[in-house]
Amino acid sequence: MTGTVLEVACKPGDQVDAEQTLVVVSAMKMEHKLTAGIAGIVQSVSTEEGATVDQGDALVVVEPQGD
Length: 67
Description:
67 residues; single chain; mainly beta; three-stranded antiparallel β-sheet; 54% strand; four-stranded antiparallel β-sheet; elongated
């Protein structure tokens, strides 16, 4: 499914919590909030608002936070 990025809510270097919203995508007339699966540090963001993305694209890379 193809979608359009509505919002990017993080940038490289940000500390994020598990389940924190990172990107909001509009697809099939619905908004989908893509969340972090783990707590950690954002290593890279490979999209921007207005970009078209496909299912399976890696939009944000989060490195686990070491304890």
